[in-house]
Amino acid sequence: MFQTCGLFIRLNLEYSKVPGSILGRAIKIKNTTFNQEVYPEQRLRISSKLKSIIMGFYTFECEVTSEDKVVCLAELVLK
């Protein structure tokens, strides 16, 4: 999930030409729930939605699904 969000930040800053660092560093994991186990051969779909940008901190709502079942929900903060 962090990689998906970090990629968004990197592409957003590169294409908008906003000055600043392009690190996408993991800062905080909030409100996370794991609903079931996942195994190495399972296909996962990771969805991330930008919730807010405050003082350079990007907050995302993330969802991981497998076979149309939600296996993880999380709120992540990156800088």
How do the helices and strands line up, and which of them pair or pack?
Blueprint: H1 2-16, E1 26-34, E2 45-54, E3 57-66, E4 69-78
Antiparallel strand pairs: 1-4, 2-3, 3-4
Give the tags.
79 residues, alpha+beta, four-stranded antiparallel sheet, 1 helix, 19% helix, 49% strand
Quick structural overview:
This protein is an alpha+beta fold and 79 residues long.
Describe the 3D structure.
The protein is α+β, with helices and mostly antiparallel strands and 79 residues long. The protein has a four-stranded antiparallel beta sheet. Helix content is 19%, strand content 49%. A hairpin with a 2-residue loop joins β3 and β4 (69-78). The mean pLDDT is 88. It contains one helix and four strands, in the order αββββ. It is elongated and about 40 Å long.
Outline: elongated
- Can you give the mean pLDDT? 88
Gyration radius, in Å: 14 Å
The number of distinct β-strands equals 4
- In whole angstroms, the N-to-C terminal distance is 14 Å
Q: How would you classify the helix and strand content by structural class? A: alpha+beta
Strand fraction band?
Answer: over 45%
